[in-house]
């Protein structure tokens, strides 16, 4: 493998920004990319902004002010799931809802404890499908070791709900001795780790929609990562950033971190694991696997002296057997992600501009 520490500095021309949509919501606003970020900044943060929300993570750190010695913090995260179809190879909307929220809480370094769930059901949904999805949620919650403690159910008219939407909120506990984790904590010299192959979830969902035009055995990677993350943090207690590359994929998530931390992240294309079937599907459809959604992968950015221990811990944990190093962090050019390609050239990875695959999570 090429030495990741010898990538030269790179500055070059940038692609023009896509047309803006200032009057109405379009699918691109749900991509997790640039349009989502702009919507959050100009609407939600403009009216609802506060230090917790403005941190830009998938979770909020909340202090436990109980008049006692420091007993840690709460981590809270909420997520809505509108995936189509409801069932796909390797999972369903119920497993996705539980795992997605457990993972968002876990990215704070917290131990997930509790979930709540809100269900919007469309008139005409079969009770068999509903029971199958709720059973899947129970199995996923048991695997993660969390308890669903509250919920709500609403029903909308036929044609106005697409079967089912689920919103989940997760609550976890951050031990008092755990150093802060977040997208703004990456430091020059850090090593970038990835827990396994990318793109499985997006291609599995496309397969379920019948959009591939050929058969594939690809299964979604949807899984709870909290046990893997706790094992990683025991071996690498000074880990700086944890982030799951869901909407917008690996490239968009790395851009978020680079911009939050104002660092450069350099990655090696030959180091990024992609299954042959995923690569083939992306080539056929003209998609870039670096921007395809994942639901069971984590990016870990760790100090170099803890990188080997972190990688070994990931290899020992469920869902981390294929973990690899993919790059490192530098100080400049701040806010940029640079890929060294298989040909030895360099490519700036921008944040996803529009919507590549709608309704993917």
TrEMBL record:
Domain of life of the organism encoding this protein: Bacteria
Domain annotation PurM-like N-terminal: ranges: 72-173
Domain (PurM-like C-terminal) ranges: 187-339
Biological process according to GO: protein maturation
SUPFAM superfamilies, A to Z: PurM C-terminal domain-like, PurM N-terminal domain-like
Family: Belongs to the HypE family.
Name listed for the protein in its UniProt record: Hydrogenase
Taxon lineage: Bacteria, Bacillati, Chloroflexota, Anaerolineae, Anaerolineales
